[in-house]
Amino acid sequence: MSNPYRKARREKRRNKPYRQRAKYAPMLVATDLVLRPLERIIDQLKRDGTAITDGKGYPVFQAGDGQWYPSADAIEGVIWHLEMYCTRHGRELPLGGLRDLHIALKYIKPVMESTLAKLDQDMPVLRRAMSMAKPDDQVDLLQQTRIKAAMAEARTV
Questions:
Q1: DSSP summary character for residue 30
Q2: What confidence score (pLDDT) does residue 105 get?
Q3: Pick from 98, 95, 86, 85: which is nearest to 138 by CA?
Q4: Which helix (H) or strand (E) holds 13?
Q5: What 3-state class would DSSP assign to 61?
Q6: Which residue from 141, 127, 142 is spatially nearest to 26, judged by alpha carbons?
Q7: Measured at the alpha carbon of residue 86, what is the angle toward residues 35 and 24, in degrees to the nearest 5?
């Protein structure tokens, strides 16, 4: 009464051996180090409508290492990093708000309320994308962003 092929099916071996995929912990700390200063700039713009500036009047921010850096250049670097991420992985990330903020800070223009509203919607998506990415990929993208920044600086000189 039993099926004669049943034993053969049970003993059939899998053609491809099982290999467990590497598991990555979310990059929560690294994402926080990159995006927290940017979020502080956005929060200050929402709260006071102002940005911290250097002696020449250019917007600056204090990074986690205690140094002061130009805000527009840092935002441009984050945009480059995320654009390369989109190109590499075929994803679309909402970068319009960041681009508008970069232009406003670079050319010392007023930051519109619509830009801040876009950033409110975009930042959680960007934070999630960066935190769930593979660490090796993020390090490689960071290196490519540094190379792009060095090339852009060499072109202006």
A1: H
A2: 93
A3: 85
A4: none
A5: strand
A6: 127
A7: 65
